[in-house]
Amino acid sequence: MKLKQLSVFLENKPGQLLLPCKALSDAGVNIHTLCLADTQQFGILRLVVEDWKAAKEILEQNGCVVKLTDVVAIEVEDRPGGLARIIDILDKGRVNIEYMYAFTFGRNNRAVLIFRFDDPDSAVELLDSEGIGIVGAPDFFKLAGNGK
Fold first, then answer.
1. Terminal-to-terminal C-alpha distance of the chain
2. Which domain CATH number covers 132?
3. Longest dimension (CA), the chain
4. Is residue 147's pLDDT more than 60?
């Protein structure tokens, strides 16, 4: 029920984002979703791709520093209060959200958000017990239009 996310560490200066994007493009790896966060000194490019093993190898061969983490894709009602409901459940369950970002597709008036939790297994268990839709890898990539 978890997805693998690649975090690529970049210097925060012009041109640094091109290297990982071009390396993956040249290898035919499609980026399904991403998030870019920065500080004054460096940035972190977070990517979800279908073949994360190949992408990690390609990035490392091109000199990138890559970390692998587990993230959870959650379906959220696309209406006012939909996200607040999810966060309330997590808060009551004492689950910490390290960060989150949106994925641009949805189904049946639902949005899909990517969450990084300090304890992803506990978060999945809690959300599942509350009937919250967790999007596993096969469904995630199917929704992205590139599933096999």
1. 17
2. 3.30.2130.10
3. 45
4. no
Give whole-number Cα distances, 102 to 32, 77, 98, 112, 114, in Å.
12, 13, 14, 6, 6
SS (H, E, C) 16-61: CCHHHHHHHHHCCCCEEEEEEEECCCEEEEEEEECCHHHHHHHHHH
SS3 92: helix
In a domain, 13, yes or no: yes
Q: What is the pLDDT of residues 13-42, one digit of tens each?
A: 888 999 999 999 999 999 988 999 888 888
Print the domain residue range for 53: 3-69
pLDDT value of residue 110? 78
Residues 112 and 135 sit within 8 Å (Cβ to Cβ): yes
